Amino acid sequence: FQLAGEPREKILDGLGIGLAWHLARDGSTRWHNGQTGGYSSYVASLPQQQVAVAVLCNTATDLTTILGEKVAQTALGMEVDPPKVREVVDVPVETLEKYVGSYSLNFFMKFTVTLDGDRLNVKLTGQDAFPIYPSSPTEFFYRIVDAQITFVLDDKGEVTKLILHQNGVEQEAPRQK
Asked: What's the predicted TM-score (pTM) here?
């Protein structure tokens, strides 16, 4: 573990990287995180304080790292604010029904929105369908990834497109007739 924690390369603003471990600015904390296939993880070792943290989630989201950092800070006796949890609001099924349909992201990919009882599911070409949860009558979020969808209505209340918000990028997908 000692060898793995020796800096091999200096990267931004005092951070370093050892053998697969990122080195925090304090020079002793080692950590690593990652996401793949709908899962995410965070692990940290603070050897001087004899603290280790591991967070494993069945959701691909950067929030796993934030949670892991907060757990480590709490273990060190620091006061931290708990992570924010998105609130799900009730949206009438009649409103949800308006969103059912196909939305073209580009020539090769489209979103297919379906209604299963009182929940919307969204399938992107080549992927599985996943539920989305309302935070307002037109704004929804995934729990499987850190992404949101906004349904855009015209002045007659007709759905014209959806907007995918993910990784700081907004992608519009016009509704298909």
From this structure: 0.68
